[in-house]
């Protein structure tokens, strides 16, 4: 049975009306509550920023707490209420929502709105609706501000939401509950796969670090400066990005978009910049020279594409005669992170200069026998490539399965919630 025919059967000819949110629920803006107010124990509290950084669509327990005397001054959140974010630096996070299912009464503060569902609305049905393109379009119409974007409780109340069978609250809630049940099943499956992926990543990291310690084998510590040279990139900006041009790797992409190695780049810059740039060759390892954390500085991606690519001036191309993937994998280990931390210049932006990077040590197998050393590097890379595909590849393994399930979920979510628009509903 198709999703559309299932929706038809679920509705069974009942009327669906688009109603303003304020007609079917009470919306009250929060007040007070800052992160400095949090305590280890006390009254459960929901901070607006946690809704798009910590929570999913529902929660039975809160991440934070406040003292009882402060809680008395804050907006109350009861079981079944929905807490909605009003404010963020980006429009995507505004309107994110959380249905609270805890037994203890909670509180929330400013920059959040408490939605108290009436007889026609199920809280979680609403939270799923806030993920749809329709809701995203509506909230944009009411958004105010540039650096900080806000959609007020008054404007949220104007947004239309589809209510099936509005003349029979009991039947309406039953239909909403069935839609929630279906979408919960998709969400639970994705959550299970994500938990499995997390476990596999921990296993992979342990095994990778174990392999690269070379216990019981002939190894030698060598500095990166001993086994290769560094070429610093040249500056380009995001304003230089184009659809078709010179392939580049920006330092920030190394720790946000790439894995241990790549054959393709995500970005390109204007062709006329060609003569002013510096390039990484196939086999070079591109290393981030700056980052917000020590872990991000020194992150590396092996470039194994056929052509040369340009690199940013806050990154380096490490040129050597070893297996590039081996070097990149070694740079992910806990041992390497500990080694590079000794040379990171800390500040608002953490930085690792060439002189410091050249002093960082790595373990080299069979250092006195080049052929044997490369054969061992190749063997280790072959093993780690399989783990890498399982845990990081969007083309195979668990990440691909999760991506497919998320696409399937989004398809059925929009299908189940794409009732006739208000302008075509029969009166």
From TrEMBL:
GO MF: endonuclease activity
InterPro entries: Restrct_endonuc_typeI_TRD, Restrct_endonuc_typeI_TRD_sf, Type-I_RE_S_subunit
Keywords, ordered alphabetically: DNA-binding, Endonuclease, Hydrolase, Nuclease, Restriction system
Chain ranges of the Type I restriction modification DNA specificity domain: 16-197
Keyword Membrane carried by entry: no
Organism domain of life: Bacteria
Family classification: Belongs to the type-I restriction system S methylase family.
Record protein name field: Restriction endonuclease subunit S
Source organism of this protein record: Mesorhizobium caraganae
